[in-house]
Specification:
- With about 425 residues, this protein is an alpha+beta fold.
- The chain folds into two domains: about 130 residues, no CATH class; about 190 residues, no CATH class.
- The protein is built from 16 helices and twelve strands.
- Strands 1, 2, 3, 4 and 6 form a five-stranded antiparallel beta sheet that branches. A three-stranded mixed beta sheet has the order 5-9-8, covered by helices on one side. A two-stranded antiparallel sheet has the order 7-10.
- Helix 11 packs antiparallel against helix 12.
- The longest helix is centred in the N-terminal third of the chain and has 26 residues.
- The N and C termini lie far apart (about 55 Å).
């Protein structure tokens, strides 16, 4: 069903209602727990998490915009959210319902001065894709070039700050985020900055040009061309670059999927450790694969320049983990701001437990099969213990929000691609001699 933009007043009411219902649900659950057995209380908490997640996902999905985008990010944050809540938020990763064409037509005319049918030889009324902050239409320029036109939903940029304030309040009121206020403020400030950058399509056009120039001599990586004369702050026109979604690669030969997996892995590592600039939205819709072995990048709204000291600390932490140097892991996490320095040192046995899960693709002599990977399930088994005993020892540093998003997101892509290979030798050159 097509949805029209929600007015600012209605957004505030919907978000306030959601916040009240979430907070009320958790308050009721905490009161009931006083009179329940431990098992019944735990079962009731899980049901409350699931109901709250469904309510938040439904509300954010209908409102689109910043809150839906943050909900998508939160859906992979299983280290700080209960599993039932994160699973409900994962529904926001699906394609959003589109806006009616007249809304899109009016937005293009406001931004570019003419209707889409005057600006293009052909403009498809049916969207090619729809997402949280805008939708994409296929078109043909007057000189015959096939393009895609990305159009931002009206009013999304104006609602970012109030949307985030209400979402932060909802999560805080539920008692779900066991994070110190200072760390939470820094986390939301980083998300806010990223969203404002993502909503500036002139900034995205510059990001596309940067990556297109960087990969100019790399025949394996495809970045679309910016059509500047048909772009503005809220409309972005790019050359159409076809490719297969990761879910369409099942028919690819295993050798090709292995080659594409290695290419994606090397490309992400190079962006993190060498370029220190990452394409930071790993939604599977933002990448495509070709049967000739090439990788296509889409959607450059969320691009993060990493601080050299963060990359150095991240590299040192990864090296320490692979080498089972748990004092080095502790030091690295403190440098990254991921450890709460006010809390006692974390024992090596705790780090070893996580290292033995996350290092699997990079150790041992046998090729690692991402299709059979169960790292995510094994990690989830340890989340209750983390929340019960160790959550106050760690904090989500703002500097790692988007870097962690990339790593976790591409783990999912590699699983869906079914890539196999020796990934340790691919990683080590990026970590130094």
């Amino acid at each position: 069903m097509n949805d029209r933009p929600v007015t600012k007043g209605r957004r505030l009411l919907r978000l306030a209602s959601m916040t009240a219902q979430v907070a009320g649900g958790y308050a009721k659950s905490r009161i009931k727990a006083v009179f329940q057995s431990d098992a019944d209380a735990e079962r009731d908490r899980a049901q409350t998490h699931a109901r709250s997640g469904e309510l938040i996902a439904k509300t954010l999905g209908e409102l689109k915009g910043a809150v839906m985008k943050v909900g998508q990010m939160a859906s992979i944050a299983k280290d700080i959210l209960p599993r039932e809540l994160a699973e409900a938020l994962a529904t926001l990763q699906r394609e959003a319902p589109p806006m009616p064409f007249d809304v899109i037509e009016e937005q293009i005319e406001r931004e570019l001065g003419q209707s889409p049918h005057a600006l293009f030889q052909r403009f498809d009324r049916t969207p090619f894709a729809a997402a949280s902050i805008g939708q994409v239409h296929r078109a043909t320029t007057d000189d015959g070039r096939e393009v895609v036109v990305k159009v931002q939903y009206p009013g999304v940029d104006e609602a970012v700050d109030s949307d985030l304030a209400h979402l932060r309040l909802a999560l805080r009121a539920s008692g779900l985020l066991k994070i110190e206020r200072k760390a939470l403020d820094a986390l939301f400030d980083e998300i806010r900055r990223g969203l404002h950058e993502e909503l500036d399509y002139c900034n995205e056009a510059d990001n596309v040009r940067f990556f297109r120039e960087h990969y100019r001599d790399n025949p394996d990586v495809v970045v679309p061309e910016v059509i500047g004369e048909r772009s503005s702050q809220r409309v972005l026109t790019l050359g159409f670059e076809p490719g297969d979604h990761v879910d369409q690669t099942d028919e690819y030969p295993q050798e090709l999927r292995d080659r594409l997996g290695a290419l994606l892995f090397r490309t992400v590592c190079e962006q993190i450790f060498s370029l220190q600039t990452i394409h930071a939205d790993p939604n599977p819709a933002n990448f495509a694969f070709r049967s000739d072995g090439r990788l296509v990048f889409y959607d450059f709204g969320c691009v993060k320049r990493l601080q050299p000291e963060i990359v150095a600390a991240y590299k040192a932490t990864v090296l320490a983990g692979l080498g089972e140097d748990y004092d080095g892991v502790e030091t690295g996490l403190l440098r990254l701001g991921a450890r709460n320095p006010a809390m006692p040192a974390v024992p090596a046995s705790y780090y070893k437990m996580w290292r033995d899960i996350f290092a699997r693709p990079f150790v041992g002599d046998d090729p690692f099969d991402y299709a059979a990977a169960n790292m995510h399930r094994d990690a989830l088994e340890h989340v209750p213990g983390f929340l019960a005993k160790w959550v106050s020892s760690f904090q989500p540093p703002a500097e790692l929000v988007f870097l962690d998003r990339v790593v976790v997101g591409h783990y999912g892509t590699m699983r869906r691609l079914g890539a196999r290979g020796a990934f340790g030798p691919l990683l080590r050159p990026f970590l130094g001699p």
